[in-house]
Design brief:
By secondary structure, this protein is an alpha+beta fold. The protein has helices at residues 8-15, 32-35, 55-70, 74-86, 91-100, 103-109, 116-124, 152-155, 158-161, 164-168, 202-209; strands spanning 128-130, 133-134, 147-150, 176-179, 184-187. A hairpin with a 4-residue loop joins strand 4 (176-179) and strand 5. The longest helix is centred in the first third of the chain and has 16 residues, at 55-70. The chain starts with 7 loop residues before the first helix and ends with a helix.
Length: 211
């Protein structure tokens, strides 16, 4: 499986915004955006003062931000866009709903991980069951009514034992329900755009692929 292996802090600096790729670290003074809020590279500072970006550049940047926030590579992202295009409703909103329904994102939203990349690792290691069956594919798209639970063996793991108190105070999106004591959850509905709190202008992504 292809994945990004370089510094994720450089991605935030390139996009000019916090993408929250490192969980709690992104909220601390150690965050790279707190120290160097400009693009990486020898011309990074100068890029802050360059002329206004073209429409194409704005569309490209928004697509890249979405890919990096959700940890999806181009080929898979384009496939999600094509699914969204064939689905009734606004293509941009459909795209974000699809991305939110990924198993790794749901695990992150439930509070089992501090970041989507950590959630992806937990899924790949087989710590979760979906509808009673073990699922280790991070890109699995969940549907309304799907049940997610931490497998029994994993509950004895030191990492998950330490999560019990954290989950009791975890606030989850309205389209998810969480039972902290059982470490189980249900996706009660597919999220709407109003329920997705990512700072993206999805219409720019639609315009990019519609060129």
């Amino acid at each position: 499986m292809a994945r990004h292996v370089e510094s994720v802090c450089a991605l935030c600096r390139r996009e000019g915004m916090k993408l929250f790729l490192k969980g709690e670290r992104c909220l601390s003074p150690k965050c790279a955006m707190e120290k160097r809020a400009y693009a990486p590279g020898m011309h990074g500072r100068a890029m802050q003062f360059r002329r206004k970006e073209s429409d194409y550049a704005q569309q490209l940047r928004e697509k890249q931000r979405a890919k990096r926030i959700y940890g999806v590579l181009e080929r898979q992202f384009r496939r999600y866009y094509e699914i969204a295009l064939r689905t009734r409703g606004l293509t941009g909103s459909n795209l974000l709903s699809i991305l939110e329904c990924r198993l790794d994102n749901v695990v992150y939203r439930l509070g089992f991980a501090e970041s989507r990349s950590q959630a992806r690792q937990l899924v790949l290691h087989g710590h979760f069951f979906v509808n009673g069956g073990r699922c280790d594919v991070a890109s699995t798209l969940l549907k309304a009514g799907d049940a997610i639970v931490v497998r029994e063996q994993s509950k004895q793991n030191g990492y998950f034992r330490g999560l019990t108190e954290v989950l009791e105070h975890q606030t989850v999106p309205v389209w998810l329900t969480l039972d902290p004591s059982q470490m189980s959850a249900t996706m009660v509905a597919v999220p709407t755009r109003e329920q997705i709190d990512v700072p993206l202008a999805e219409q720019l992504i639609v315009e990019f692929y519609s060129r």
